[in-house]
């Protein structure tokens, strides 16, 4: 399963941190499970989304890590500027959806 999720041919590389969270803290609430299933169905119903999103995310820095450094007041100016730089393209992409 891990090999399938991380394969380049699959088109989606699941991050190690997120995968660990999913394995260690699986959804138990029926409404949360149904919401995730609805999200998966939305992806299936919009076949171009995966490619569009993958193209957008290529080359972006590890935002989760940088934002946690900012929150801990332990980031470099360069990291902070990366977050500012990518926030505009992400906002523009989100507004077109």
Any overview of this molecule?
The chain is mainly alpha-helical and 97 residues long. The model is unreliable at 8-12 (pLDDT under 50). It is globular. The chain has helices spanning 2-6, 16-24, 30-45, 47-57, 63-71, 77-95. The longest helix is centred in the C-terminal third of the chain and has 19 residues, at 77-95. It is 71% helix and 0% strand.
Low-confidence stretches: 8-12
Share of residues in helices: over 70%
Q: Return the average pLDDT rounded to an integer.
A: 77
The number of helices is 6
- Tell me the number of strands: 0
The CA-CA distance between the termini, in Å, is: 30 Å
Shape: globular
What gyration radius follows from the Cα positions, in whole Å?
16 Å
Structural class: mainly alpha
What string, H for helix and E for strand, traces the elements in order?
Answer: HHHHHH
Sketch the major β-sheet.
none
Q: What's the topology here?
A:
Layout: H1 2-6, H2 16-24, H3 30-45, H4 47-57, H5 63-71, H6 77-95
Characteristic key phrases:
mainly alpha, globular, 97 residues, 0% strand
In short:
The chain is mainly α and 97 residues long. Helices cover 71% and strands 0% of the residues. It contains six helices and no strands.
């Amino acid at each position: 399963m891990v090999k399938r999720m991380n394969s380049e041919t699959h088109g989606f590389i699941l991050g190690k941190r997120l995968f660990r969270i999913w394995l260690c803290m699986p959804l138990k609430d029926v409404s949360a499970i149904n919401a995730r299933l609805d999200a998966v169905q939305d992806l299936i119903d919009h076949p171009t989304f995966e490619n569009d999103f993958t193209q957008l995310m290529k080359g972006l820095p590890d935002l989760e890590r940088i934002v946690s450094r900012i929150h801990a007041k332990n980031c470099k100016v360069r990291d902070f500027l990366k977050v500012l730089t990518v926030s505009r393209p992400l906002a523009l992409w989100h507004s077109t959806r």
